[in-house]
TrEMBL record:
It comes from the Eukaryota. Residues 125-185 form the V-SNARE coiled-coil homology domain. GO terms for biological process: protein transport; vesicle-mediated transport. SUPFAM superfamilies: SNARE fusion complex, SNARE-like. Keywords: Coiled coil, Membrane, Protein transport, Transmembrane, Transmembrane helix, Transport. Belongs to the synaptobrevin family. The lineage of its organism: Eukaryota, Sar, Stramenopiles, Ochrophyta, Bolidophyceae. The keyword Secreted does not apply. This is Uncharacterized protein.
Length: 221
């Protein structure tokens, strides 16, 4: 599972967004934002192999898109964290802010949290500790066509090349990390061997010279 896109909006006004790949997500999400009822709280919409998850809190909508239909807990944990940080940072400013006025400052936060929930094994553990599992079980999951008007269509385009490149980069990064770990293990092993050899040489020399004071060797000199 990977979260590939996220935004914070007030109604249809997007205040900040971030994606780690290429696609027409802004076009699709603008359609979705216009369809989300003010009374909604949290929901997921499936589109082919991708899922749009959103949380509505007050007049603000926190939305993300993931590439898996089988994982809902982490996307909603991600959205909860984004809501927490955004509310703490901006408070009532978001109620009157113009479109993208927070983007320069907040998109790096979206990127940081996205990378954490995508790559850090601890993310799932944090979610479980916060007791968000039961909440997600009650989230309604529907096909995106249910929110579209008759005859209305949207086409989601995702650049899979970017995703493959990111996965390749991640694999390369993990390989380098493993290589460094193995190198340090070898260094530690050779240092341990060198230390043992030095101790053996010292012990043999000490025995030959009459003890730790080396008095036999000193008297010969």
């Amino acid at each position: 599972m990977a979260i590939v896109y996220a935004l914070v909006a007030r109604g249809k006004t997007v205040l900040s967004e971030y994606t780690n790949t290429s696609g027409n997500f802004p076009t699709v999400t603008r359609v979705l934002l216009a369809k989300i009822p003010p009374s909604a709280t949290r929901q997921s919409y499936i589109y082919d192999s991708h899922v749009f998850h959103y949380v509505v809190s007050g007049s603000l909508t926190y939305l993300c898109m993931s590439d898996s239909q089988n994982q809902h807990r982490l996307p909603f944990a991600f959205l909860s964290k984004v809501e927490e940080v955004f509310t703490s940072k901006y408070g009532s400013q978001a109620l009157t802010a113009i479109a993208f006025s927070m983007n320069e400052e907040f998109s790096p936060v979206l990127k940081k949290e996205m990378e954490f929930y995508n790559n850090n094994p601890e993310a799932d553990a944090v979610t479980k500790v916060k007791g968000q599992i039961e909440d997600v079980k009650n989230v309604m999951v529907e096909n995106i066509e249910k929110v579209l008007e008759r005859g209305e269509k949207i086409e989601l385009l995702v650049d899979k090349t970017d995703r493959l490149n990111q996965q390749a980069f991640k694999f390369e990064k993990q390989s380098k990390r493993l290589k460094n770990v193995m190198w340090w293990k070898k260094v530690k092993m050779w240092l341990a061997i060198a230390f043992i050899v030095a101790v053996i040489i010292f012990a043999i020399t000490a025995m030959a010279c009459g003890g730790l004071t080396f008095h036999n060797c000193k008297s010969n000199n």
